[in-house]
Amino acid sequence: MKRILLIDFENVQKLDFELIDLTDTEIVIFVGKSQNRIPFPVVEKTQTLGERVKWLKIAGDGKNNLDFHIAFELGCLCEKFKKDIELIILSMDSGYDSLMRYINGSGIPIKRISNLAELADSKKQLPTSKFTGLVVSNLKKIDNQKRPRTGGTLKKHVESLLRDRASANEIDLIIEEMFIAGLLTQTSNRLKYDLDPPKE
């Protein structure tokens, strides 16, 4: 079965392909109109994958513009392949989730991940931090309306909470772990918290 990975590069820039089996995988990387500087390590990694990687620079500006481009591409892929395809969106944006439920209902498997380590064939370790529990406990004590609403303000909040105990890289791991666990989602660059898992 062919696997197609669609990457929201406005949302996720950490692309570690080395520890993933990409034999039957094609990759489409969607780049925002104003993203004019792609980090060299990312270009170097993707270049080794040859024609299996396609970069798409979106046209125009506007809220959710890149999301609409990905949605259009998903429609084209569903029509082209109809079956024997697995679609994966790499993005922390939960705005895709209702569309994915619709596509899954049509019999085409699709899922969203926020880190490549979530792929079943990944040998990369999922991000974890000994401080994540402390950060989640702290955020639970804050009224939902007053919690940080952007990635930048959340990073500053965690930095202030942990002071000198965690590096910038460790703070990134904490936030990544929260996204993977479903404690944190993002829609239109606004963070949403789900810090209380459903009771059994």
Structure description:
This protein has 6 helices and 7 strands, in the order ββαβαβαβαααββ. With 200 residues, the protein is an alpha/beta fold. It has 2 domains: 2-118, Rossmann fold (3-Layer(aba) Sandwich); 132-193, no CATH class. The strands form 2 sheets. Strands 3-2-1-4-5 form a 5-stranded parallel beta sheet. It has a two-stranded antiparallel ribbon with strand order 6-7. The longest helix is centred in the middle third of the chain and has 17 residues, at 65-81. The protein is globular. The protein starts with a strand and ends in a 7-residue tail after the last strand. The mean pLDDT is 87.
How many helices? The count is 6
Whole-number total of structural domains:
2
Segments where pLDDT lies below 50 for 5+ residues? none
H/E order of the elements? EEHEHEHEHHHEE
Average pLDDT figure: 87
Largest sheet: 5 strands, parallel
Which fold name corresponds to the CATH topology of the largest domain?
Answer: Rossmann fold
Question: Rg from C-alpha positions?
Answer: 18 Å
Strand order of the largest sheet: 3-2-1-4-5
Distance from N terminus to C terminus (CA atoms, Å) equals 35 Å
